[in-house]
Amino acid sequence: MGVRIAGVGHYAPAKVLTNADLEKILDTSDEWITTRTGMKRRHVSAADEATSDLAIAAAKDALARASLKPKDIDCYVVATVTPDFAFPATGCIVASKLGVAGKPAFDIEIACSGFIYGLTVVSSLIRAGVYKRVMLVGAETLTKLVNYEDRSTAILFGDGAGAVILEESAVDSFLAADLGSDGTTPETLYLPAGGSRQPITPAELAAHHDKIHMAGREVFKYAVNRMVESSLNALSRANLSPSDVSYLIPHQANRRIIDAAAQRLSMPPEKVIVNIHEYGNTSAASIPMALSEAEREGKLKGDDLIVFTGFGAGLSWGAVAWRWAA
């Protein structure tokens, strides 16, 4: 049994934070941000808007576009590092709020690689015959973890959610995957406090250890190398090459990372899906949001070969070679 994408959807909060807004609170400028990241705007969740709220909106969008109901989904999976709570899983909350309490649901927490890992896991469940139809949502409210006194991270992150419905199919769209991780230096990109290693205390809060910390230069070099390597590995396993690729849909972390990876893969700009200017880095949500917009704009045609690739905290990375089915 194969797997295909039956529907896609996305959601972004109404509030927008522009580069001009950031100029008012940071020593920065629109030109500096745009040149270094490609970002112009990011969407920011409201104070009472949790990750599950964004995930539900994206899931409803995908369901509507696929002409399906929540009960038609066998399992719900949410990729996120900003869950509503440390536990229970946000996937459980999403399924229940969609009116299907009792359905299996779980989370995948591997940051910006979440959608790549999720797509691989969910496709495997369907191809193995465990489920016939699964909802996979990448959803994040990263702005709640941003230190707006830290220019190096404050400009990067936004909130949003993207959802895909995967279902069994006689023709298999999943061609190959390549996943990897290296937890040797988690401090390269991490949230220091809040886990069992470093519980939150008044001192940790005062030091902003409840906010995102990142070693930007190390992440940049690692990201380009791993995304390219992983994409080539996935294509090789499918007996394909970059020249066969119709679209590269990368994690939207930084425009310079995207451009460098695309150049090394010999992918011209018209074959690379980019929306970082509007949403910034939305972690696990970025790839499905970009996919949803590309599908809505009519860019994707039957038999198009897509490479999804991403990199994130962990450090983690991966790529999936996927054949689009109209």
Which key terms come to mind for this protein?
single chain; 326 residues; alpha/beta; Peroxisomal Thiolase, Chain A, domain 1; 2 domains; five-stranded mixed β-sheet; four-stranded mixed β-sheet; 13 strands; globular
Write the layout of secondary structure elements.
Layout (H helix, E strand, L loop, with lengths): L1 E10 L3 E4 H5 L6 H8 L3 E4 L6 H16 L8 E5 L10 H8 L7 E4 L5 H14 L5 E9 L9 H4 L4 E11 L4 E8 L7 E2 L11 H5 L6 E2 L1 H22 L9 E4 L4 H10 L11 H4 L6 H11 L8 E8 L3 E8 L3
Shape: globular
Name of the CATH homologous superfamily of the largest domain: Thiolase/Chalcone synthase
- Total number of strands: 13
H/E order of the elements? EEHHEHEHEHEHEEEHEHEHHHEE
Question: Could you walk me through the main structural features you see in this protein, from its secondary elements to its overall organization?
Answer:
With 326 residues, this protein is of the alpha/beta class. It folds into two domains: 2-172, Peroxisomal Thiolase, Chain A, domain 1 (3-Layer(aba) Sandwich), CATH 3.40.47.10; 175-323, Peroxisomal Thiolase, Chain A, domain 1 (3-Layer(aba) Sandwich), CATH 3.40.47. It is built from eleven helices and 13 strands. It has helices at 19-23, 30-37, 51-66, 90-97, 114-127, 151-154, 202-206, 216-237, 255-264, 276-279, 286-296, and strands at residues 2-11, 15-18, 41-44, 75-79, 105-108, 133-141, 159-169, 174-181, 189-190, 213-214, 247-250, 305-312, 316-323. A five-stranded mixed beta sheet has the order 1-7-6-4-5, with helices on both faces. It has a four-stranded mixed beta sheet with strand order 8-13-12-11, with helices on both faces. It has a two-stranded antiparallel ribbon with strand order 2-3. Strand 4 (75-79), helix 4 and strand 5 form a beta-alpha-beta unit. Helix 3 (51-66) packs across helix 4 (90-97) and helix 8 packs parallel to helix 9 (255-264). It starts with a strand and ends with a strand. The model has no long low-confidence stretch (mean pLDDT 97).
